[in-house]
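Hi team, as promised in this morning's meeting, here are the two structures we talked about. I've kept the exact order from the run log so nobody has to guess. The first one is mostly here for context; it's the second one we should focus on when we meet again. Sequence first, then the predicted C-alpha cells.
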Amino acid sequence: MELTTLTLCCDHSLQENDARLLRGFFGQRYQNRVEFHHHGPSGLLYQHPLIQYKTIGGVGRVMGLESGSFLVRALPEIDTLNLNGQTLNVLEQNRNTETVAFGTTEKPVKYQFLSPWLALNQANHQRYNKLVNKAKRQDLLSRILIGNLISLCKSVRLTITDRLKANLYIETPKSIEIKSGVMLTGFMGTFTVNFQLPPLWGIGKQSARGFGTIRQIKG
C-alpha cells in the first residue's frame, strides 16, 4: 500500500487541535476534490478518509493512503498556511512516499494511541454507558475497533478473509471537545490486533482531523 506524508514545519509550533485548521486550509484550497475535505453534495461523507491531517510535535502532517497518496504527491509546494486567520510561514517541507505493509497478519501487532480514539457514535455510546461490567465494555470497544479496520479496508477495496481479533488495554476515558459545544468520549491506551496498519495512521471518528492516530510498538 502506498503512503505519502507531507510534513510542514512553520515559524510557529502547531498545536494538537490545529489539525482541523489544516484540513480547513487544504479543503478550502481544493474544494473540487472531496478527498481533501470529506464533504459531498449531501454533506459529510461517511467513509474512512484516505487523506488525514495531523499535528505531532509541533509539525503539521498531510498524509495520503492509496488514492490519497497520489493526491498528496501532486500537491505543489506551500509557502504559507492560513490557519483561522493567522498566516504562518512554512520554513521547511518534506514529502515522503513509501510502500507500507497493510492487511491481516499471522501474529498480533501491538499499537499505542498517540491521540484520543473517538470510538463511540450516539447509538453505541448509550450501549457503552449501560454496561457496568468492565470486560463487556472492553468487548464492545474491541468490536468497534475491528469495525474501524473493516471500514478502512473497504475504502481501499481490500477484502478480508481472515477473522480479525483485537484486545484493548484502555485508560479511563475522557471527554473531548471536537468543536464548540460538541463533546465526544476519547480513549487512550494500547491494543493488539492481527492487522498491519500504516505508521501514524488514524482510525475511528474524526480521524481526518488527527484523532485516533496510532504508532506500532516494536518488540
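And here is the second protein, the one for discussion:
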Amino acid sequence: MIVNQANLEGIYKSFSTIFNEAFQQTPTDYEKVAMTVPSTGRSIDYKWLADFPTMREWLGDRVIKDISAFHYEITNKDFEVTIGVNRNDIDDDQIGIYNPIIRMLAHQAKIHPDDLVFKLLAAAFETECYDGQYFIDSDHEVNDASVSNDGGGSGNPWFLMDLSKPIKPLILQRRKNPEFVAMDSPTDENVFMRKEFRYGVDDRKNVGFGLWQLAYGSKDTLDATTYAAARAAMMAFKKDDGSTPLGIRPTHLVCGPTNESTARTLIDIMNNAAGAGNPWYHTVELIITPWLT
C-alpha cells in the first residue's frame, strides 16, 4: 500500500469503525452503582449532597437547609492510551494485524470507569465523602448523633447498596467522552524519526462518592448474620430530624471474587443443604466485580 494521505485517511476511518463497534459491544458495571454527571468545567462542587431531598409537611415558611459548611469537589483528570503503527506495516499491507489492538483500545476505554469506580469503592473505608467522614464510617452525623454504615472487620470488603434512587452511592463525572484520535500525517516528526504513526483514545473524567446513606460496607465475614445486620442498619437510617425513616431498601450486594461463592449461596440458593428455606433468597441482586478482592 502506498503511504499517502488518502490511504492514511482510509486507515483512520477503518480503525475508527472498529473502535466504535468494539466500544459499543463492551459490557460495564459502573453504571449500576454510579450516577454519571456531565461536567462543563474543570471541577464540580457536590456540597448539595448534604441536602438529602425529602418531603415534609409545609407548616409556616419553607425550611431551607444551610449547606454552605460543606465542600466536596471532584476535579476532572485526563486519561489516554496510545499505540504506534510501523510505517513498514502499512507499506507491506499488514495493517490488519492492528485490528485486535484497536479493539483492545476500545475495550480499555469502555471499562476504565469500572476500574476507577470500583477501586474508589474499595477505598471507601479510608476516603472522605461530602460530610468530611470516610464514605464507610462509624461516625456520620445525623441530628447531632453518630450513625454508622460500617460493619467492621478486617477481611475482604463487601457492600450492601440501595441502587433504586436517582442519586447513587458513587459518581462518575464526565468532562469529555472517549475520543479516538490519530497522529497520522506523513510529515509528523514521529514518522520522520521513527517510521511510526500513532493512534489512541483520550477522555476527561473522575470519580467520587455520592450519598453514604445508600451504602453499607463491611470487612467482616459475609454470612446470614452480618447480611441481616447490614440490611437492618440501612433500613433504620433516618432523615435529619433523627426520627423519620429515609426509606432505604437494599437492592444490591456488591463484592469481589473472594466473596462470590458465599454471596451466591446466601442470595441465590432457595433452600440450604438440610432443606430449610433461605429467608434471604433473592432479596437483592448480586454485582461481582474483579476490582474488589
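Starting points for discussion:
Residues 5-56+66-288 form one domain.
The chain has a mean pLDDT of 91.
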